[in-house]
Specification:
Elements: H1 6-19, H2 32-41, H3 47-60, H4 64-68, H5 72-79, H6 85-102, H7 111-115, H8 122-133, H9 142-151, H10 159-169, H11 175-188, H12 207-212
Helix pairs in contact: 2-8, 5-6, 9-11
The chain binds a DNA duplex through helix 3, helix 6, helix 8, helix 9 and helix 11.
DNA sequence: AACTCGGGGCA
DNA sequence: TGCCCAGAGTT
């Protein structure tokens, strides 16, 4: 596998934008803190189920102070259907504690500070920076990783280097947009199993398609 | 690099 | 019933 040429990369982004003109974050939130909580909950869970949980959860709890009123076990019950609920409950409460104690209950907007919060890795930090603070970032989840390496926007076996490849190959003012386009494509056509290559406009340049033909 | 956490939707 | 889902922490 190699990576595409610059002109091909331009065409890929344009094609994906035509295919998904409304690609955007599908998690429901009204504040950076709500997005941070929703993104922690979204690990190995569909965003639809996260939205079902947060729709009720955020009615009663939408600030770090609110969540600190809950015991770990109480929060576990509220978020149970998102899976990994023990880890997520610890992460949300630990993060809430730090925000109240050190950040005046505000969510920091730098990757370094976000990644110090329990349960916040590079992917979650990038999602928050991009969708809550308008900073350009490429959050590499399973979809972005798979699709970009199949097509040839990246050529790497780990997510950190995939992010480096993407930042190198994609203009900085399009990082956040590209992130959403790759997720939409991964969920609808370039699926992990049985990808719908016959529906994909990127067949002409895609390394994965060339390999499977 | 491999392992663990996990309930719910869907075939 | 088996497989999979907008990851992160530990060993």
């Amino acid at each position: 596998m190699k990576t595409l040429k610059k002109q091909e990369i331009r065409e890929v982004i344009d094609e994906l934008e035509k295919l998904y003109p409304n690609a955007e974050c599908e998690l429901n939130f009204t504040t950076p803190f709500e997005l941070l909580v929703a993104t922690i909950l979204s690990a190995q869970c569909t965003d639809k189920r996260v939205n079902i949980v947060t729709e009720k959860l955020f009615k009663d709890y939408n600030t770090p102070e609110d969540f600190l009123k809950l015991k770990e076990g109480e929060l576990e019950l509220l978020i149970k259907s998102t899976g990994f609920y023990r880890n997520k409950s610890k992460s949300i409460l630990g993060t809430s504690r730090i925000l109240v104690d050190k950040y005046n209950s505000q969510v920091p907007d730098t990757r370094e500070e976000l990644m110090k919060l329990p349960g916040v890795g590079r992917k979650t930090a990038n999602v928050v920076m991009s969708n809550a603070f308008g900073k350009e970032a490429i959050a590499v989840d399973t979809h972005v990783f798979r699709v970009s390496n199949r097509i040839g926007l990246a050529n790497s076996s780990n997510v950190d280097k995939t992010e480096e490849d993407l930042m190198k190959n994609i203009p900085e003012n399009e990082w956040s947009k590209a992130h959403h386009l790759l997720i939409f494509h991964g969920r609808r056509i370039c699926k992990a199993r049985n990808p719908q290559c016959e529906l994909c406009p990127l067949r002409g340049v895609c390394f994965y398609y060339k390999k499977t033909v």
